[in-house]
Design a protein that fits this description.
The protein is an alpha/beta fold. It contains 14 helices and 18 strands.
């Protein structure tokens, strides 16, 4: 394999927070979000709950159909009244549940680590179960194992208790995103699923000990799955915005496009020039643009790369494939549709969890009294007319945890035999 090595982008926490926001619009000083009249803990939370509701009502294009319902009004009023009896974790869960009623992945709240710390354990949902994809290094043997229970509870019961904390734009969204909540014991505790706010215990298939999901280990070194010498190239370098390599045995040009933001150390124009050189080398017959790990950003960043692909005989002869999946969001989803419609790309992989036509152009800001971050969509984006659901691939492949943890990429396996 021939890699184009470039420094990884230095992503700030701000860019990571924005990456899901489509084309974000900063609005950090909203007049309706006032300081609480009292410095008491309860007054600060109650003020920010009211602020959240007002911003949703005033800014989301679908607000009237949600916020004017008795169910929403009652839930918001009840949460505000209950603040004195609720823990911080329970209030955050209540806010997440309230905002999730919009069924819009771009409209959401996120609590900073000082309010809701996460453990280093990460889980991901696949067709065949939920698997541990990151664990503390001392528990490295647990990486890649299937999750069976949390605090002795069956996963179905755990997911049911957490279900309202995430939107369900498509049938696959809620289970996929709910699995990511398992790294935050505070949310499990808030829903009565754990004995303490900072720690939970997981049992894994093939791992003899209980895996501690503990916020005290937040800074620990981690072990990841997959971690095998012969894993597919698509499992490497996911911390870079974008990069390209050739896979000689497949005569394939592989472009992993992980974030729709410029890498200042390696601008996308440089990527496009390198891709042009590889296309003109005569060593590749097909191109795979991989958007499966891309949460979004600014769709126009891809323009120079798209122009290079459009000018290539490899692409005009039907050799362009675009991999999509449950973590393809926002601007990346837009790019997938553009490549399909403009360059006749074949979409391969799995359906997105976000709707093809969705809300976006996000306003984001921090609630003044608690530090909770709120994102609110400001417009509706119709990108795929007539499609009321997910962006579906032309070629759907199994998405198995057992493949993932062994470094097997079903897209590469399909290309190998087709």
């Amino acid at each position: 394999m021939h890699f184009l090595h470039r420094p990884a982008a230095l992503l700030t926490l701000t860019l990571l927070a924005l990456s899901l926001a489509g084309c974000p619009l900063e609005d950090g000083n909203l007049p309706d979000c006032r300081r609480a009249s009292s410095e008491s803990r309860d007054a600060r939370w109650q003020t920010d709950i009211r602020c959240t509701v007002e911003q949703l009502k005033g800014r989301h294009p679908n607000a009237s159909t949600i916020t004017e319902t008795p169910a929403f009004r009652d839930a918001a009023s009840q949460l505000e009244r209950d603040v004195p009896q609720l823990s911080t974790e329970e209030i955050i869960a209540g806010l997440k549940s309230l905002v999730a009623r919009f069924n819009d992945v771009h409209t959401a709240i996120s609590a900073p680590p000082f309010l809701l710390p996460a453990s280093p354990v990460r889980f991901e949902a696949f067709d065949d179960g939920v698997f541990a994809v990151q664990v503390p290094k001392e528990a490295a043997a647990a990486a890649g194992k299937e999750l069976l229970t949390i605090n002795g509870l069956a996963l179905a019961d755990v997911f049911d208790a957490l279900a309202d904390l995430e939107p369900d734009e498509t049938p696959a969204m809620r289970p996929y995103r709910t699995a990511t909540l398992l790294s935050k014991p505070g949310l499990l505790w808030a829903r009565g699923l754990a004995g303490e706010a900072g720690r939970s215990l997981a049992t894994l298939d093939g791992y003899s000990e209980s895996l501690s999901i503990d916020v005290a280990n937040a800074g620990a070194e981690v072990a990841n799955a997959p971690d095998t010498a012969d894993m597919a190239v698509s499992f490497t370098d996911r911390d870079r915005n974008y990069w390209a390599t050739t896979v000689p045995e497949l005569r394939l040009l592989y472009i992993q496009y992980n974030l729709c933001f410029q890498d200042l150390a390696y601008p996308v124009q440089n990527l496009a020039a390198d891709v042009r050189a590889l296309l003109e080398s005569g060593d590749v017959d097909r191109v795979l643009v991989d958007l499966r790990y891309n949460p979004g950003g600014i769709s126009s960043v891809m323009r120079s790369l798209k122009n290079v692909l459009a000018a290539s005989p490899v692409v005009s002869n039907g050799g362009l494939y675009v991999a999509i999946g449950p973590a393809t969001y926002s601007a990346a989803l837009t790019n997938a549709i553009e490549l399909r419609d403009e360059l006749d790309a074949v979409l391969i992989g799995n359906p997105t969890t976000e709707r093809a036509n969705h809300y976006g152009d996000v306003l984001f800001f921090t609630l003044q009294n608690t530090g909770v971050q709120l994102r609110v969509s400001s417009t509706f984006l119709e990108l795929d007319p007539g499609n009321d659901g997910a962006l579906e691939p032309d070629i759907t492949l199994p998405r198995l945890g057992t493949d993932f943890v062994n470094g097997i990429d079903p897209v590469f396996e399909w290309l190998r035999v087709n």
